[in-house]
Specification:
single chain, alpha+beta, Protein Transport Mog1p, Chain A, Membrane-bound Lytic Murein Transglycosylase D, Chain A, 3 domains, four-stranded antiparallel beta sheet, 16 helices, 20% strand, protease, hydrolase, Peptidase_M48, zinc, metal ion binding
Length: 491
């Protein structure tokens, strides 16, 4: 969600590059890669600042420098460039488990994904997988589609059928509801993902790392995705870096088999853990935080609660609210001081060029002391009817926020409790929001999985969270003298 430093909305339609977000059509594994071309370098340079802004900005400091170092070291194994300076590796401030790349040698990983890793070889594996996408030119193979539809249009086309059916209006509406950074990456084929896995394993071997790191990090990602799904009461099918396509367990097995018999044994576990100690984990308060069913933004001084049975995903520009019977987002748009015009403008943007979308009527109200306006529209998608609602709130003469929600016809009222929950928060409430960070601890002889799990700064599933964070299986135990990660409140 938008922080005070991130109030200017980006036009994501300007992203004509196909992001290799994942973890890609078939073909053999190239033994050597063609060098980065001048055209690719220019494409990457043009998209790079927009991409950084969309994913929370580029992090700086020792942790970011460490990620950059490892990323460049693994990237030179690809043959795309002859020197480390041919690549740009960025640690981005996002709480989503994701990694991606664009042509020109631009490689990205989120801090959340780095926090899930357990050694340096796994970091190299993730970044090597993304370099593999660039080396195999998977992005260019999807370029024509991306240019026709834009990234959001492509993602909208993939996901719109879930709720809206495959129709023009369904795709158009989905574009408006899929603005969060966690849904911005273009998906690649299973063949391409496996090819990027294999290329990443080759790079690991050349660099002397344990090639099994690809399979272990994929396993951790699959476990994290399953845990998130369980905690949110949903099916574990939300697109994530490790589950872009079905059957992530097969990806783990295939990667392990490809690594068997290959040279390399370096993991640098303790070095890695010491270097990520203190890394921000989960939501950044500058972008707002999700606490159970509540979203709280300490800088914008607002809060709301998702409906029962729905879960939220926090992005740089929007908070997505998802459930079986509908989806919504909380975001903002330019505001001139007229709520009626604001609501009509949001409807118009959701409809796009293909559909004139307008509310059947507009209502004014007050919600927890906030001036508000709302409207609904019933839309025929071609296969079914859906209701679209926009509910806007004035927070200042020049600032408004709104929900945009969609549900099957007659069921938009499921979001009414959420609409009515929007409120300002006090300064004391805002100051009480403290970020979480990774704390690397050395286990004592008396420590167990249960005892370290109790140190996790969560109100539920502490032991399960600890196991997934440290890559534990159900039978693994804590060993005295070894380093482990726990998540604590950063006071």
């Amino acid at each position: 969600m938008i922080g005070n430093k991130k109030l200017a909305l980006l036009s994501t339609a300007t992203f004509s590059l196909a992001l290799t977000g994942c973890m890609g059509a078939g073909g053999s594994i190239p033994s050597a890669s063609a060098p980065i071309t001048a055209t690719e370098s220019q494409q990457g340079a043009d998209a790079h600042p927009k991409l950084l802004a969309e994913f929370g900005g580029r992090m700086t400091g020792p942790q970011a420098a460490y990620v950059e170092q490892i990323g460049k070291n693994i990237a030179v194994q690809s043959g795309l460039g002859n020197a480390r300076q041919d690549f740009t590796v960025s640690l981005v401030n996002s709480s989503v488990n994701n990694a991606f790349a664009i042509p020109g040698g631009y490689i990205y990983t989120t801090r959340q994904l780095v926090g899930l890793m357990n050694n340096e070889a796994e970091l190299a594996a993730v970044l090597g997988h993304e370099v593999g996408h660039v080396a195999a030119r998977h992005s260019q193979r999807r370029q024509q589609t991306a240019q026709r539809n834009s990234i959001l249009g492509t993602v909208g086309a993939i996901l719109s059928g879930v709720l809206l059916g495959d129709s023009g209006i369904g795709n158009t509406l989905s574009k408006g509801f899929l603005q969060g950074s966690q849904l911005l990456t273009l998906r690649f084929s299973r063949t391409q993902e496996l090819q990027a896995d294999e290329l990443g394993i080759q790079y690991l071997t050349k660099a002397g790392y344990d090639p099994q790191a690809m399979s272990t990090v994929l396993r951790s990602l699959a476990l994290q995705n399953s845990l998130d799904a369980s905690l949110q009461g949903r099916n574990a099918s939300i697109p994530e870096w490790a589950s872009t396509h079905p059957d992530p367990a097969s990806r783990v097995s295939t990667a392990s088999q490809k690594a068997q018999g290959l040279a390399g044994n370096v993991t640098n576990r303790d070095t890695f853990l010491s270097r990520i100690d203190g890394l921000l984990y989960g939501d950044d308060p500058e972008q707002g935080v999700i606490e159970g069913q509540r979203f709280i933004h300490p800088e914008l001084k607002l809060s709301f609660s998702a409906p029962n049975g729905y879960y939220m995903v926090n992005g740089t520009r929007a908070v997505s609210i998802n459930g079986q019977s509908g989806q919504a987002q909380m975001t903002l748009a330019p505001y001139s001081g007229n709520l009626d015009s604001y609501v009509r403008g949001v409807f118009s943007a959701l409809g796009g060029e293909q559909q004139r979308l307008a509310p059947s009527s507009l209502q004014r109200t007050t919600v927890n002391g906030l001036k508000a306006a709302y409207g609904t529209a019933r839309v025929n998608t071609g296969q079914r009817q859906v209701d679209v609602a926009v509910f806007a709130y004035e927070f200042a003469p020049n600032r408004a926020f709104h929900f945009q929600a969609i549900a099957p016809a007659g069921r938009i009222s499921t979001f009414t409790p959420m609409f009515n929950s929007m409120r300002r928060i006090s300064t004391s409430e805002a100051n009480a929001i403290v970020p979480r960070r990774i704390d690397v601890v050395t286990a004592r002889s008396s420590d167990t999985v249960a005892s370290l799990g109790r140190r996790m700064a969560y109100g539920n599933a502490q032991e399960q969270r600890f196991r997934v964070l440290n890559g534990f299986s159900s039978n693994d135990v804590v060993r005295a003298g070894q380093k482990y990660k726990v998540v604590v409140r950063a006071r």
